[in-house]
Write a structure and sequence with these properties.
- This protein is an alpha/beta fold and 259 residues long.
- Helices cover 47% and strands 14% of the residues.
- It has eight helices and seven strands.
- A seven-stranded parallel beta sheet has the order 3-2-1-4-5-6-7, with helices on both faces.
- Helix 1 packs across helix 8.
Length: 259
C-alpha cells in the first residue's frame, strides 16, 4: 500500500539504533526524506548513509543532544520543512525512586516530556499552514502499565501523554495528527538494561530474568525494530488522517486489559 508520504520530510530523534532507527528506515522505505538525530555521531552517520543509499532519499545527520536548544535548532534547520516529527529519547535509568535526586527527575522530564513539547511547538504551526502534519511520540508501555523499576520513565512519559491528549484534538481539523506509540518489550539496548537491573534486584542471572520477562508475552518473543517502524509509518501516512490522540500499545499481548 502506498502510504502517500513520498517526498515528505521527517525529523526522527534518537534514530541511530533501536526503535528510532526502525522508524527512520520504514519512513525512508516510503520515500520520506530524513533528518536523523542521535548523540553518537559515528553510528548516526553510518546509518544515515545506509538509508540514503538503500532507499534513494535525502538524509541529513545531525549529531548532538536534542534536549539542548542549539541542537534542536540545527536539526530543524536541516530540512526545508518538517512534515513528520518522531519524538524519541532513550529512557531514564531504572532504579528505586528513593535513590533519585531532584536533578534526576528534572533530567527525565526534560528529555521525555519537555523536549518533545518544544519540538512540537517549533513545527506545529508550519504543519497547520500546509494542512499536513504527523507527530508520533515514542513513549512506553509503562504509561499504561507502570513498571516499578522505571519510576522516572513512568512519571515523565505520563506527563507527555496527558499533554498530547489535549493538544491532539485541536489540530485534527487541519490534517495534523498527534499520536503515541507505546512499545512493550522490544529487543533493544533499553530492554537489556532493564533486564540487567531486574536481575540484580531479584538476585538471578540476566538470562533467567530475560526468560521471566518473555514468559509474560503471549507472542512468545520480544518485538523487533522493523515491525515497530512499520506501525510508526502507518501513523504518519495519508490514510491515518482520522487517527489522533491515541496511545498505540505494541507489546505482543502482554497487557491483559480490555482497554
Amino acid at each position: 500500500m502506498d502510504l502517500g508520504i513520498k517526498g515528505r520530510w521527517a525529523l526522527v530523534c534518537a534514530s541511530s539504533k533501536g526503535l528510532g532507527l526502525g522508524c527512520a528506515a520504514s519512513l525512508a522505505a516510503e520515500g520520506v526524506n530524513l533528518v536523523m538525530n542521535a548523540r553518537g555521531e559515528p553510528l548516526l552517520n553510518e546509518e544515515a548513509k545506509r538509508l540514503a543509499a538503500e532507499y534513494g532519499v535525502t538524509v541529513h545527520a545531525v549529531a548532538g543532544d536534542i534536549t539542548t536548544e542549539a541542537i534542536r535548532q540545527k536539526a530543524l534547520a536541516a530540512a526545508p520543512q518538517i512534515d513528520i516529527l518522531i519524538n524519541n529519547a532513550g529512557g531514564p535509568p531504572p532504579g528505586d525512586f528513593r535513590n533519585f535526586s531532584r536533578d534526576d527527575w528534572i533530567k527525565a522530564v526534560d528529555a521525555n516530556m519537555l523536549t518533545p513539547i518544544e519540538l512540537i511547538k517549533a513545527t506545529l504551526d508550519g504543519m497547520i499552514a500546509r494542512q499536513f502534519g504527523r507527530v508520533v511520540n515514542i513513549t512506553s508501555s509503562a504509561v499504561k502499565a507502570p513498571i516499578d523499576v522505571l519510576a522516572l520513565s513512568n512519571g515523565a512519559r505520563s506527563g507527555l501523554t496527558g499533554f498530547i491528549a489535549g493538544l491532539s484534538r485541536k489540530t485534527a481539523l487541519h490534517n495534523v495528527t498527534i499520536n503515541n506509540l507505546l512499545p512493550g518489550m522490544f529487543d533493544t539496548d533499553r530492554l537489556r538494561g532493564t533486564i540487567k537491573a531486574a536481575a540484580a534486584q531479584m538476585g538471578v542471572s540476566e538470562d533467567e530474568a530475560a526468560k521471566r520477562r518473555m514468559a509474560g508475552v503471549p507472542a512468545g518473543r520480544f518485538g523487533n525494530a522493523h515491525e515497530f517502524g512499520q506501525a510508526c509509518a502507518y501513523l504518519c501516512s495519508a490514510q491515518a488522517s482520522y487517527v489522533t490522540g491515541q496511545n498505540f500499545l505494541i507489546d505482543g499481548g502482554a497487557f491483559p486489559g480490555t482497554f
